[in-house]
């Protein structure tokens, strides 16, 4: 196990030095120029930063801890990204131990969302999961079973967690927003209204809360 974690940490360090790329090139990228743009303790993958949180918490308390760091529990959008998460956990935890990520179907059973609001466009469940074993299982844990995939489980269990946040808005975009605010022009698309740095739209169609959220995610809002 020690050897594995040493290898994973070496791979992680190299990926951060050269810029993490997808699984096709191996998690260790060979020819990328961009450096790690995340702050200390965070690991970059594409446009986001990831951090392993060793302290075991329930899912909601893990999410709240991520929010306190300006992040959310991690969402996952490709197998390459999932492998990267596994490397981060494997390096920091010393093995592929069960770890909270941001998926939940607490609002409506079997309708999954990511807590960071991104599209639920990739899944990697263990065979037979999600299964609501023994009743409701609304929270998602990674590294489950022999193949280290996903399970739905009761949110009151305690596990370590992975937080993720975007670094897109820390530099150029904030400056751009400040200039726009100074010029006082509406940066929102047609039909949207700006307040501060965000755009708002009233949607007349009545829907349940989860379907309202889903139709949102399926539209072009991102
Ligand atoms: Ca469930
Ligand atoms: Ca389950």
UniProtKB/TrEMBL annotation:
Under InterPro entries, the record lists: C-type_lectin-like, C-type_lectin-like/link_sf, C-type_lectin/snaclec_domain, C-type_lectin_CS, CTDL_fold
> Signal peptide location in the record?
1-22
Q: Which CDD domains does the entry mention?
A: CLECT
Gene3D superfamilies attached to this UniProt entry? Mannose-Binding Protein A, subunit A
C-type lectin domain segment(s): 45-164
Q: Which terms are listed as keywords in the entry?
A: Disulfide bond, Signal
The name under which this protein is listed is C-type lectin domain-containing protein
Q: Which organism is it from?
A: Coregonus suidteri
